[in-house]
Amino acid sequence: RSLADAKLAGRKNTPTSSGVLALYEASSLIIGFSGNSTEVNMNQNLKLPFYSTQLTNEQAKDFLNNHHFQYIYFGYQEQSVGGNMEKYPFLKKVFENEEVKIYQVLL
């Protein structure tokens, strides 16, 4: 239930057609729940350095800008990579429940 709540919160907390970064499982569902766009066909290995917070702030900003991501979905699959989105000072948490956080990219 809380996972569905988070996806529905995406509809309330993000403008329609916003670019949302998520790993495969959430990526494939976000479009239907919120009307936002994701990079479903993007190689998941390109997303892992961001989610594991291995990128410097500048590398992370470039990644987000180059792929037009305006929001970050951070659910169980994304959390399993081991990173902490709080590392990136340019992300603002706009939603949180016990399973998912959604961040807005402030660049």
Quote the distance from N terminus to C terminus.
32 Å
**What general form does the structure show?**
globular
Radius of gyration: 12 Å
Structural class, from secondary structure content? alpha+beta
User: What share of residues are in beta strands?
Assistant: 15-25%
Number of strands: 4
If strands are numbered along the chain, what order do they take across the biggest sheet?
1-2-4-3
Sketch the topology as an H/E string, one letter per element.
Answer: HEHHHEHEE
Oligomer designation: single chain
Task: State the low-pLDDT regions, or none.
Answer: none
What this model shows, in words?
There is one protein chain. The chain is of the alpha+beta class and 107 residues long. Helices cover 42% and strands 16% of the residues. The chain has helices spanning 2-13, 24-34, 44-51, 57-66, 76-79, and strands at residues 20-21, 71-74, 91-96, 101-105. A four-stranded mixed sheet has the order 1-2-4-3.
Short description:
This protein has 107 residues and is α+β, with helices and mostly antiparallel strands. The chain is 42% helix and 16% strand.
What is the secondary structure topology, with strand pairs?
Elements: H1 2-13, E1 20-21, H2 24-34, H3 44-51, H4 57-66, E2 71-74, H5 76-79, E3 91-96, E4 101-105
Parallel strand pairs: 1-2
Antiparallel strand pairs: 2-4, 3-4
Helix pairs in contact: 1-2
Quickly list its features.
107 residues, four-stranded mixed β-sheet, 42% helix, 16% strand, 5 helices
